[in-house]
Amino acid sequence: MSTDPELTPGGGPIQRGTEAPSDELPVGSRNAPKARRAARDPKRPGERCRAAPGHWIPVVDRAQCEGKAECVDVCPYAVFQIGTLTDEEYRSLSYLGRARARHHQFQTSRTPRAAECRACGLCVVACPEDALKLIRS
Ligand code: SF4
Ligand code: SF4
Known about the structure:
This protein has helices at about 30-40, 70-75, 85-90, 95-105, 120-125; strands at about 55-60, 80-85, 105-110, 130-135. It is an alpha+beta fold.
């Protein structure tokens, strides 16, 4: 019987009981490196993916969102989708907000799968416009 240590795909021995916590290795994100960077942000709010689905939901500030999809990239549960501002949303913006909206082709983030949110907080710290917050539903 072989006494060689069990090896990882990278060739190193498996260190039992020393796996990195799952909150540092989000699974399911469209852009894993970006998600890992967000996971290291000490300001990340929420419950590190330990919340039951839908106990928290992300809320998008339409006046701040520029539709650049960082949230889409990092969310491990595909909560976000980029869409177009409605006429009503557009009209509700300030003069400056409308100018920004036109500049960004009226794109904004939607949350069609908000009920799947596990409060990992990655979207909040990844958003470059501070347009997202998590609230308890
Ligand atoms: S919420 Fe933030 S990250 Fe998501 S599309 Fe809007 S600006 Fe980009
Ligand atoms: S906090 Fe919720 S919506 Fe935001 S990235 Fe995590 S699971 Fe997705």
